[in-house]
Amino acid sequence: MMVYNSFGDEMNWNELIILPIIAMVVLFLLTKFMGYRQITQLSLYDYIIGITIGSIASEVAVSAFDDFLKPLIAMIIFGLGTYVLSFITKISKKMRYIIEGKPLILYENNQIYFDALKMAKIDLDEFLMTCRVNQFFNLSDLDKIILETNGRFSFYPKERSRQLQFHDLDKQLNKETMPITLIKEGQIIKDNLKMIQHDVSWLHQQLDVKGLKLDDIEYLYVDPKGNLDCYVSNKKKSYFI
Question: Within 10 A of 68 (CB to CB), how many other CB atoms are there?
Answer without folding.
Answer: 19
